[in-house]
Amino acid sequence: MSAVNPTATATTPATRQVVVETLREEASIWLFVVKTLVAFFAAGWLAMRFDLPAPSTAMLTTIIVANRQSGMVLAKSFYRAIGTVGGATAAIAIVASFPQQRDLFLVALSMWIGVCAGGATLYRNFKSYAFVLGGYTAAIVAIPVIDNPPGVFDSAVARLSEVLLGLLVSGVVNDVVFPSRMRDVLRRSAREQFAHFLNFVRGATEGSIPREAMENAHLRFVRDAVTLEDLRSSVIFEDAEARARSNHLRLFNQRFMAASTSFQSLHHLVNRLKRAKRDLAADTLVRLYAPIGDALHVPIEAGMAARVLLPRLADARTAMRTQRPLLRASLSDVQDIRDYDTGASLLMRFADELHAYVDAAASLQAPRIVGGTAERVRFDRGNDWLGAGLATFRTTLTMLVLGLFWIASAWPMGSSAMLLATIFAGLFATTPNPTRVTWIVMLGYLSGMAMGFICEFFVLTQVDGYPLLVAGIAPFLAVGLVMMMSRKLGSFGLGWSMGLAYILALKNVQTYDPAHFINDAIAQVVGLGAAAVSFVVIPPAIGSAWLRRRQLTRLRGQVALAAEAPLPGLRHRFESVNHDLFSQVVAQTQPGSADSRALVAWALAVHETGRALIELRHDMARRDIPSTLLPYLQEALRALARFYEKPDPAGYLLARDAVATAIASVGEHDGQAHLLEHLHLVRMALLDGESVLAAYMPSAPLAKEIVHAS
Fold this sequence. Notes:
The protein is mainly alpha-helical. The protein is 75% helix and 0% strand.
């Protein structure tokens, strides 16, 4: 009898893996801490050696751009450098315009800072750093010389030197000392996107997919597309190969979005046929779909070479073209034939897009690029200008109030309050709950300043020389850096680290003045508090029900874009803006909530209808349309656009009837049958009793007409 405990044997590998993952995570955290400390103190030492006025600015810069991934640091540094140069230029212009008018000077500076905060809200990811730094740099350059305008140029040069030194040191340290490459994350994400989608497609060859499963798949597809674009935009800063393949990555992502949309439309159609008891048409489409499943019936892993699949998919398309007329001939019912033609056209489109997607993956997996791609694409964003305008107004008002208080009170430390308010008003304008985040950061900031007091007056006063200064500060700063890597304490740790670095204000000749320290700390707390209060008085758009409604309206408006916008580049623009808008609203809704489910339902409807309209318009553009038919097609496009822009029962009836009229009119014209497939797909979506459009349908007699045109 065996003496080995089978339970222990079974759990040992899993336990070992958990231990390994935990140790790897701990090692990653401490590597981040060590690298940040090295960058922090190296920047300070160099700034002191170069005799820069404020070495603490260079040191604080290393904290702000700190990240585990080298590519993230370089991306943040790149945009921070742009913002720094822009802010310094703006500061010189503002001081030169109002050298003797303090009131006008503060108004102009407040407006500039407000515009920068609005830009940080409008442009997400690391581009927002350029705007945050544009406002912050203008403040730190211009405010100290408010009583000495001729000194603005020297102030600008000093701030530029300090910030750029901090960026340079951070970039070098993160790129040389045990670099953690974003390109590895990007490659893994691309492989996982590829494997997940193809496995899902292969598993769907059985026929219908439950609506809930399709909704979850759609969420995954959207996240994958947006995440890949965000990673691509960061990795190009650290890796020459990623820069060379940048457009190939965009093309790969765009083809993924196109194929996933057609895939969803195809399975919505099959589901509708099943629900309407049109099993013969549905089963015939599944048989036509079978060659794709056979082509993908190989082990598909994240690292699999896509070129293995290309000939299999090409053979599958050839087999489908051969089987298409044969399967059609097996149908006798007119309605079945109509449904089959619609589904077969959609299926062939999906097969072409799937082949193009796999081809793009094969080009990425090639050892090197043999020339650039002929098709250049871009990932458009669904930015909200009104929300950015609100952030601009809030920040401008906050700066004006602080400026007026500074002038009226003649507060010596008013400049510190304005600087801190500038940083955090822009930095947290892009977060879904900035009031809460700002208060958490402020608590961390207070804790960091308290530790800074202990460090400065009880530790630094007892040491001499830079090595001992490093030894004295490092333990205090390391605590905040460790917390920055925690999901729960990340904001608190950021505040701790920034508060400690800012309040120490290290320079070549360090002064120890408790009264000045406390006054400066009070001013910084006032600035932070002003930023937090501004988010309470004028709530941000991000995360609000108001913005979600606007974004949902914008998402529905994508159907109008598909129906009316110029055709060149429309497919790429439609797909990328849809995915970006959808990801924004998903990030601001509770998963599984009524809002979230309504959003997903609308997104699926918009994707399906919008893509069908784009394909319809392309077919209309490729062939001559009789002048007697064109008005009916244009009216159908117009009615659908207006209904999706402002959905109501009357608009639904107009859109449904316009599409039905267009279908009847196409049937009266020879040689235009190719248009019927797109129009039937749109009508079937309009009559889907389980879609979000069901709320606008008359209760009878169309309940029996859920899927089909009569």
